């Protein structure tokens, strides 16, 4: 599983995209975003780019641990159907 940590904002989005594309190229298809401390709308664009790249390779990414703010942005932009988001089971 590829874990994304820290900030995912406009300033570092290109570097985060590149790191994620490298992870996809090495076979990682599950992305854990639970340790993101700060996001902006660039995070959605990064996820779209990762997903586009995976689909070109015939794969589908699975995203886990999305912060509530990121889930809200995805919903606001009408992209909920585009992403496979794993919701943790509650016991």
From TrEMBL:
Residues 1-91 form the STAS domain. Gene3D superfamilies: STAS domain. This is STAS domain-containing protein. It comes from Undibacterium hunanense. The lineage of its organism: Bacteria, Pseudomonadati, Pseudomonadota, Betaproteobacteria, Burkholderiales.
